[in-house]
Amino acid sequence: MKVTSPTKVTNLNADKVDGLDASAFTRNTGFLPTEVIDGQGPLPKENIFFTFDRADVVVLANGSGYRDSALVQSAAGPIGMDVYVDGVKRGSAILTTNEQDSHKAFVDDFIVVRNVPAGFHKIELIGKYEVGSCNTATDSSNFCTTTNSGDFFRVTVIPQPIA
């Protein structure tokens, strides 16, 4: 099929692809950051991002959480979240806190995902919680992260086309 006219034709409207407006498909010529998650908790959070061409993708992920006194015995210990792209863990944003029930910002993680094919990709944030290890006498060395509506999360992706 060849289109030689800019006129919209009835029943031939390609303005939307997979429910996205044409403006969502800006041609990527390099540095084009896109915020894909921006909102309050709790975890998990997920969304979809799109790359026009095969690219190395920089993922900037941050959020917050706490150690819930009802779920841990030790006030001090690590908390954080894992970042997944297309079902594969690519990095973590973590920290160690010294108190319970106090929301803390995770140390941002800057992740580079190499050779991402063109198309739609799923990104997920999942709280780090070691089931069976929290609320034990030794839970100070285990990830026991809790999140709720008081926590905020943001993920930005920056595709870098591969030459």
Can you characterise this structure?
With 163 residues, the protein is mainly beta. The chain has a single domain, classed as Jelly Rolls (Sandwich), CATH 2.60.120. The protein contains no helices and twelve strands. It has strands spanning 16-17, 20-21, 34-40, 45-51, 55-62, 64-65, 77-85, 88-97, 104-105, 109-116, 119-127, 152-161. The chain has a four-stranded antiparallel beta sheet with strand order 3-12-5-10, with no helix packed on it. It has a four-stranded antiparallel beta sheet with strand order 4-11-7-8, with no helix packed on it. It has a two-stranded antiparallel sheet with strand order 1-2. It is elongated and about 70 Å long. The model has no long low-confidence stretch (mean pLDDT 88).
Range of helix content = under 10%
For the sheet with most strands, the description reads: 4 strands, antiparallel
Q: What is the CATH class?
A: Mainly Beta
Our estimate of the beta-strand percent is over 45%
